[in-house]
Amino acid sequence: MNLENLKKYAEGMSNTYPDLDEQIRDLYFLAEQEVQSGESETHECELAITDIKALIAKWDIQVERLKRGEVELVSEDEFNQLIVDAAEKGEKIEFEDE
Length: 98
Fold this sequence. Notes:
Layout: H1 3-16, H2 21-36, H3 41-67, H4 76-88
Helix pairs in contact: 1-2, 1-3, 2-3
């Protein structure tokens, strides 16, 4: 695999998963930067593909959870109010890493 093929793969995945476009692009550009700094092109492309596949798998799981109703969606204003309310109660607020 080379950067040219990685770019085509990343573009295809970005088109298929437009909500992940920015993150997929970031993974491509990271691989490109690593290659420019002297890392193995094949290795960096393989890492990027592995990371893109993992990102998509995580996304698919989240979508399935939404479809099954396991995740409650709230508006941004409601989310912000939940944080304010929790902070006022002295609750510790933790966020999951993406």
